[in-house]
Specification:
The complex is a heterodimer of chains A (about 70) and B (about 350). Chain A is mainly beta. Chain A has one helix and three strands; from the N terminus they run H-E-E-E. Chain B has twelve helices and twelve strands. Chain B has about 350 residues and is an alpha/beta fold. Classes of the chains: A mainly beta (about 70), B alpha/beta (about 350).
Amino acid sequence: MSAPVQEPAADGAAQFCDQCGEPSAAAGHDRCAVRRTLEPPRFCPQCARRMVVQVDPFGWKARCSRHGETTS
Amino acid sequence: MSISTTSTSDRAGQPAAGNILATAREQVLERGEGLDQGQVLQVLQLPDESLDDLLALAHDVRMRWCGPEVEVEGIISLKTGGCPEDCHFCSQSGLFASPVRAAWLDVPMLVEAAKQTAKTGATEFCIVAAVRGPDERLMSQVAAGVAAIKDAVDINVACSLGMLSEEQVTRLAEMGVHRYNHNLETAKSYFTNVVTTHTWEERWETLRLVREAGMEVCCGGIVGMGESLEQRAEFAAQLAELTPDEVPLNFLNPRPGTPFGDLEQMSGPDALRTVAAFRLAMPRTVLRFAGGREITLGDLGARQGLLGGINAVIVGNYLTTLGRPAESDIDLLGELQMPIKALNETL
């Protein structure tokens, strides 16, 4: 899946939905919000790159090639 | 495989609830003989008003033929994504536009996950890889992982690595892998609607090899993939014919980007009827709540399932999605006074 890859906001704020990779400000993230309760992030919230995600029984790790790793 | 023709109806197309429940009580609860395909279909067609009675009967069957213990398991993905197969429900196929990217877990992370899993009281830890079948690199990684886990943790190690050759089955058995998971996924008559890159018969062959090698057979599937009730009953009967040691029962969680991504989730009552029907088809098997139960059944459904035929759970997260916190399930088992099966009972 190709997601829009953008430069992050200057203040580092999350610009993109971590579930669908679309801009957070756009409408239509209701399903993403529901999904987020049982899904790890899939897209970097800063640049929308698709992240490498590893789930284990008790948590998850998500790595963006540009912005590094986040964990649950 | 026989199909019962003794169906009786009290209204068009609906079996008389009392009849099939009375039959199941005498046949399954008293004699320990599972329902056949036609009888399972009658159970799946029961109206919602009969659901409480059905679940109570399935629970009685489970308690009589399996006992009160619940088998707890953690699962982990050793190799995620990039799979060449086209299982239409799966976000790990490399053929679909799923957001899941390929990733490998290293051995120290595998051992740590096994340790954390054992701390919950779990006796099973299943290593899973999204592959058609293991190549030499994966077999080597599994061998290193199994050995490291066995050195560090008291827990049974199971594997799910796709289709195996006879030589690979032998190697896994020699590593000390005590159970092998390979799901048939759905009824034989519906399989080509779900997978086209390999056959139901290929999966059955791997299961045959696993049993021959002396490993326990873990085989289940996913319900709610668009199969008819007749095909769901067919699937239960085909699993019963296999006589697996464990049946993991998943409920479709439609994954974005997959061919089944837009299917509706099955209803809670349908899911619970399926749990009970599978228990009545297989009174002695380990019937495990697996993926999709959170979105299909919620917290209340977890309780109803455990009081409706389930006697095993996957705790914590799944392979690519998150589950209920492990402590929620452990607390629930305590509340229901269902002891966790001890390791010495499964080794």
